[in-house]
Amino acid sequence: MLLTSRLQRVDASFSSRLLETPAPAPKPHIVGDHSNLTTGWSASPTELSPSESVVRNPNLDLQPNPQTHPQEIDPLYLFACHLEWEQREEPSAAWELLAAAQSCDGDTRAQARALIASSHQLGGLGAGSGCATRQKRFLTKETDMNAPYGLDIIDNCTECASTNPGFFCGFSDSALQSLNQVSHKSVLPAGAILFVEGQSPRGMFILCSGKVNLSTTSREGKILILKTAAAGEALGLSAAISGMGYESTAETATPCQLSFVDRQHFLDLMQSQCEVGMHTAQSLSRDFQSAYRDIHDLVLTRSSAGKLARLLLAHSPTQGVEAAETRIHSAMTHEEMAQRIGASRETVTRLLGDLRKKHLIRLDGPTLVIRDRTALQALAV
Fold first, then answer.
1. If DSSP states are collapsed to H, E and C, what string results for the chain?
2. Range of the domain at 44
3. Is residue 5 part of a domain?
4. Is the pLDDT assigned to residue 142 strictly greater than 80?
């Protein structure tokens, strides 16, 4: 192979012709030696002679010339260039194959294009089957990709299968279609601010999945978490109807998918769909009852220990309360507990230590275990 010229075809009578021809043999083309590959290439932006193109400007941008290789090229030479490109990633060998792919000779052109199509460096883009295979692999990989934050993304409210009767958006098909036309879907990470206390209402949010903390802040900067909204609840509903500022600050506690409805569009929807107005009234009624219970607990519970005990009981599962121990799988930090009961973080840390000493609770790694539920209930009264 190493003694074969790129312009010489190898056949069975090659040895006999070599003995009969008195002319000297052509200079062998050594694989890996591409010093003469600039022949047949056009320089940009100015034309240089072959002897000056590489010496004067080694970084010259060479472009393939359509008239390159007007004669038939040895297939072994093209295969050698193919190996150089595949194994050593030699750029000049790749340019040689590209130039041969534009040759006037049909056999040379077909051979070069076949080698380019089978190249692993190009991923088989030259062949139709290779391109289809690559596209199929890409589509399969894209299909197998996880949704953002592991959520089941819902782009159309009418196709949502997770709607429960208690959800704000539990409308009939016609009302749900009208809601879907004026809503804007979005996916947000934990820690994103939906609206701020006192901000002029732009509209209302429907929480499709995830959890959102609603909090208020005092002038001294003390934060009190009023509520943790779950999937199916409406956020900023009262402010969107009244036009007054938002009553609280909404911040995502987990990755969430939300549906935003502009205030004017929502008011128009309430007037045109009586079903939406009924669900709005029910949602506002539930918010009022929840706020009343929270005020009752915060004001009438005398001690911070009782407030903390009530908080722990509220986050414990209601099923299996007759068991000896109740496990709370909550990611609340001491700071968040303090914000929920209106105390300081140091107070919460001290109170949890007292409850452990009294054997009312214990810690099992990140899980809090209620050991004596009856005694904790008595403390929360």
1. CCCCCCCCCCCCCHHHHHHHCCCCCCCCCCCCCCCCCCCCEEECCCCCCHHHHHHHCCCCCEEECCCCCCCCCCHHHHHHHHHHHHHCCCHHHHHHHHHHCCCCCHHHHHHHHHHHHCCCCCCCCCCHHHHHHHHHHHHHHHHCCCCHHHCCCCCCHHHCCCCCCCCCCCCCHHHHHHHHHHEEEEEECCCCEEECCCCCCCEEEEEEECCEEEEEECCCCCEEEEEEECCCCEECHHHHHHCCCCCCEEEECCCEEEEEEEHHHHHHHHHHCHHHHHHHHHHHHHHHHHHHHHHHHHHHCCCHHHHHHHHHHHCCCCCCCCCCCEEECCCCCHHHHHHHHCCCHHHHHHHHHHHHHCCCEEEECCEEEECCHHHHHHHHC
2. 14-140
3. no
4. no
Q: Does 124 or 104 have the greater pLDDT score?
A: 104
The domain boundary residue, chosen from 73, 106, 140? 140
pLDDT in tens, 260-288: 999 999 999 999 988 899 989 999 998 88
Assess whether 57 and 127 both reside in one domain: yes
- CB under 8 Å to 329, separation ≥6 — which residues? 367
101 plus 161 within the same structural domain: no
Q: Are 110 and 75 in contact, with CB atoms under 8 Å apart?
A: no
Whether residue 26 has a cis bond before it, omega within 30° of 0: no
Query: For residue 100, what pLDDT is reported?
Result: 84
Collect all residues with Cβ–Cβ distance below 8 Å to 378 and sequence separation of at least 6.
Answer: none
CATH number for 359: 1.10.10.10
- Check pLDDT > 90 for residue 251: yes
